[in-house]
Amino acid sequence: MHTTILVTGATGTVGREVVKQLSMLDGDIRVRAGVHSVIKGENLKRLPDVEIVEMDFEEPESLHAAFTHADKVFMITPFAHDQVEMAKTLVDEAKKAGVKHIVKLSALGAEAEPGIQMGRWHREIEKYVENSGISYTFLRPASFMQNYINYNAESVEKEGKFYQPTGDGKVSYIDARDIAAVGIEALTSDGHAGKAYNLTGPEALSNYEVAQLMSEVTGKRVEFTDVPEPAAKKTMVDQGTPEWMADALLELYRVQRAGHASKVTGTVEEITGRKPHTMRQFLEDHKEAFA
């Protein structure tokens, strides 16, 4: 009897890695990659035995089709102003389809009271999952190492610098590959129902330390520049970031500046049986993005 696992947000940083790792597993697992548009999911078609399904929140029939015969779900919602409503819609569809287990990508500190806005959004979704009656596992990772590629690689490549309003605050960055590995364990093995896992990398680093590692790995001088919050917000808004999103990001940066994102856990190794990637390993594996 095969198991069908639906991954929503399958073209994102974590979703793409979950699909990739699931497709490499032995056993009777069918991977269904939920994408906003089939065109964006083209790269996933190269993976073995991956079914691509379009999921459009404006078209309920597409959500119904994506969840049909799905046994388990790795649930990722976009960083959007209506992400809570989107997530609740996904949970409702999962319930109607008889999904047996949801692994939800959340965020470190989601349970904190009062917490920051990002955390409050994630916790509201978590509570909705808890009340749905569906078995669940919550993954609460620290900031992704991949964000250095997504947001800083261009300035590092062109200027040898990157910018954030984080001062010398340390963060326990985690590689998306390790988040995916924990999620897959939760989807394919027993003992994870009702659990919330705080996931971090093996060390907490400041951006000054990350810049030094980038310099060593790439062989060129890389500098981190701490910027004032007003300048950071102006840059984000000028580049097209919605104001609500800029404010939420600045709130996260304040937490990081204050050193409240530096806790390191051993959860990745406890669940997967191997140590998480270090920042140096991550940079070595992706140095072409910065060099």
Automatic annotation (TrEMBL):
Coiled coil spans: none
InterPro entries attached to this UniProt entry: Ergot_Alk_Oxidoreductase, NAD(P)-bd_dom_sf, NmrA-like
Residues in NmrA-like domain copies: 2-258
Pfam families: NmrA (PF05368)
Protein name: NAD(P)-dependent oxidoreductase
Organism of derivation: Pontibacter actiniarum
